[in-house]
Amino acid sequence: MARLSVVIGTAAMLVLLLVVDTSGRPSDIGLFFGRVHPTVVHFPIALLIVAGLTELLAWRGVFAESKLAKATAPILFLAAWSAIVAAVAGLYLAQAGGYDASTFAWHQRLGVVIAVLAAFAYVWRSRVESTVSGGYLAVVGLLIVLVGITGHLGGTLTHGEGYLTRYAPDGIRRVLGEPPKSALSDSPIDDPSTATVFDTMVRPVFESKCESCHGAAVRKGGFRLDTPEEIIDGGEDGRAVVPGRSDESDLVRRLWLPATDRKHMPPMHRPQVTPAEAEMIRWWIDAGASFDLLVADAEPDPAISLIFESWEMEALPEGVFALNVSDPDTVALAELQAAGMSASLIAEGSPFLQLRCPDADACLTAAQVAALDKLADQVIWMDLGRTTVDDDAVAALAGLPHLTRLHLEQTAVTDAGVSALRGMQYLEYLNLYGTGVTDATFELLDTLPALTAVYLWQTPVTAEAAEAFRAGHPDVHVNLGAGAE
C-alpha cells in the first residue's frame, strides 16, 4: 500500500507539471501553497542524506543488520513524499515570477528528477530485506549528488549569483574558476580621479543588499538593480529611480519606510541597508543618478562628506560634522529603544544618530523625549513622517541643537509646530509634505541658515509665496510638487 501511494503521488506530480498554467495571474491559494516550498524542501534534503549515509555504512559492513539499516526504507518513503510536495509547491511558487528562467528551469527539472528517483529508490529498497545491489547504491549516490546541485541552484535563485562561493578559500575559488578574494575587496575607492560614485558607493550596496531579489537571477516585481538600464527603466510599479528627485523615487521611499512596513525594502529577514548607505543612495539620486559622475567631481553635502571621510578620502568635515561630539550614552540609547524609537549610528565610527518611529501611533512619547534629552548632541537625522506627531510633540525638537535632517511629512504639524525649529543652526533638510503649514512658514525658514531643501507639496502654501522665498534664497530647493514649481 505504501509503495502504491508513492507511485500515485509521483504520477500526480508529473500530471500537475503538465497541466498547471504558469502564464496567467497566480491565484492567492496557489501562492499560499507555493510559499510552503522553502520549508518543505529541507525535509527531502535531510532525509536523503541520512538514507545515503545509512546505506553507505551498511554496505561497508557497519550496522548492516541493525535497526538503523532497516529504517532506510521508511526514511526513503518520507523523503519521496516530501520531495513530491516540495516539487509541486515550487511549481506554484514560481507562478509569482521574478526568477531567472534558465536557473529556475534547471532547479525545477532536477527537483522533479530527485522526487522520481527517491520514489524509485524507495520502491526498490522496500522490496529488499537484506543486501542491496550496486545499482541501487548508485541510484542513492546519484540522489545525493543531485541534492547538492539542486540546492546550489536554489541558493542562487534566492540569494543571487556567487552566494555559495562568496567566502570560499582561494584554493576552492581557483578550482571553480572564481577570482581570488582579494579581487572582492570592500575598500571602495582607490583613485577618486577615475572611480565613479555609482560603481564605488552605490553599486556595492545594491549587490550586497538588493540583488538577491532584484538581480539577473531573481527579478521580483520585474525590477532589476544590476544594470544601469534596468535601474532607470524600473519594474512593474513604474520607475523606482527618478534622477534628481529622490523624493519622487520609490526606491528611496521603500528604503526609509519603517522595517515593520510590508513595503519596506529589503524585507526584515534580509540584510538591511544602513542609514549611511540609504543616505548615499538618496544623495546619488538627487545629484542626477549619474552612472558616470567621478568621485573627484562630486559635491557631497556634509552628511555624505562624513561617509567619504570614513572611507579615508581627503574631505574636511563641515557643519555639524566638524564639531567635537562625544559618543552617545549607551544607557540613554537603550532607554530610547526600549521606549519604542529606532536609533542607529549614521556611519560606523560616528557619534551621530539617526532616529525614526516604527510605531506611527507612539512617536515622541514622554519616555522617548526623556531619553532624547540625554542624546541631544548626537541626534542629527530624524524621521517622524507618517506618524501622529502634532504641534505639541514637535516642540520637543527644540532641544536638539544639531539636527540636520527632519521628516515631518503627512503629520498633523502646522505653522505653530514648525515654529519650534526657529533658528536651528544646522538644519539642512525639512520635509513638510502633506501637512497644514501655510505661507507663514517661510518666516521660520528664513531663520534657518543651513537650509538647502524644503518639501511643501500638498500643503496650503502658495506658489507666489514660494517664488518670493526662492528669490531671496536661491540656494534653497523649494519643492511644491510636480507642476507647481
Please tell me about this protein's structure.
The structure is a single chain. The protein has 20 helices and seven strands. The protein is mostly helical and 485 residues long. The chain folds into three domains: 2-159; 188-299, no CATH class; 330-479, Alpha-Beta Horseshoe (Leucine-rich repeat, LRR (right-handed beta-alpha superhelix)). The chain has a seven-stranded mixed β-sheet, with helices on one face. Helix 1 runs parallel beside helix 6 (72-93), helix 1 runs antiparallel to helix 7 (101-126) and helix 7 (101-126) runs antiparallel to helix 8 (134-159). The longest helix has 26 residues, at 101-126. 36% of the residues are buried. The model is unreliable at 183-188 and 312-316 (pLDDT under 50).
Please describe the structure with a list of short key phrases separated by commas or semicolons.
7-stranded mixed beta sheet; Leucine-rich repeat, LRR (right-handed beta-alpha superhelix); 485 residues; single chain; mainly alpha; elongated; 5% strand
| Broad structural category | mainly alpha
Number of strands: 7
Residue runs with pLDDT of under 50 for 5 or more positions: 183-188, 312-316
**Count of individual domains:** 3
